[in-house]
Specification:
The chain is an all-alpha fold. 67% of the residues lie in helices and 0% in strands.
């Protein structure tokens, strides 16, 4: 009986890993293809310093927007399914909270693909909750590790988690310091529309990409651990 239970846990862990890995791969593939194909009306390519993720998914502004939006939508749903599978194996309330917030962050990414910047209000809500839930998932992940000394990831995973928390938190809190990084110190997630007068170095774009990159890297490392974990 115990052997059957262990086998079932192993199968669920591997299935969670496969869905999670597929989701991250789909999102990264959509991002890479969109960035490679992006071209402005003046012929210039994509610039991480003043272009946002939302512009890659803007219908009418980028003819291949469906590539990014499809990757975000289906990739996000795959990671959500991975979280639902993993939740069946955890007995820790902190790990459960982590999976809930982790799943919600990718559900928000999926919503960003379903509701591109053309649907402005729904899109910025999805961006906002992606960063909020992403920060919470890293926070609960850290609390879980502190409460479970036996479950320790690699040093690189820990460093990446700290970086993701800082970068994603910066996207949310920097406007609070009234540094005039946006007009009227508006929240960064409201600044996703195309603005021809934006500066060459635009903080909403920089912090968005830094937060997304570190979060996806950390997510990939966490999902990779699903292959061998049994709870």
């Amino acid at each position: 009986m115990e052997t059957m239970l262990v086998d079932k846990q192993t199968k669920v862990s591997k299935l969670a890993f496969r869905f999670g890995a597929l989701g991250i791969f789909g999102q990264l593939l959509g991002l890479a293809l969109s960035i490679a194909m992006f071209e402005q009306f003046d012929g210039k390519g994509f610039n991480f310093l003043n272009h946002t993720l939302s512009e890659l998914g803007s219908y009418g502004h980028f003819q291949y927007a469906v590539v990014l939006n499809g990757g975000l939508f289906f990739g996000g749903l795959c990671v959500v399914l991975s979280c639902l599978l993993s939740m069946q194996l955890t007995g820790s309330p902190w790990r459960l909270c982590f999976f809930i917030c982790f799943g919600l962050s990718f559900l928000s990414l999926s919503a960003m693909g379903l509701f591109p910047v053309n649907v402005y209000h729904l899109h910025i809500i999805a961006i906002k909750y992606f960063f909020v839930c992403g920060c919470l998932s890293v926070l609960f992940y850290g609390v879980y590790l502190l409460r479970s000394p036996a479950s320790q990831p690699s040093f690189f995973t820990k460093v990446t988690a700290v970086m993701a928390f800082i970068m994603m938190g910066a996207f949310i809190v920097l406007p609070w310091f009234e540094l005039e990084l946006t007009e009227g110190n508006r929240a960064f997630y409201t600044e996703m529309l195309v603005d021809p007068l934006r500066p060459e170095i635009w903080w909403p774009a920089i912090t968005q990409w830094a937060g997304l990159a570190t979060f996806l890297l950390w997510s990939a490392l966490v999902i990779n651990s699903f292959r061998t974990e049994n709870h």
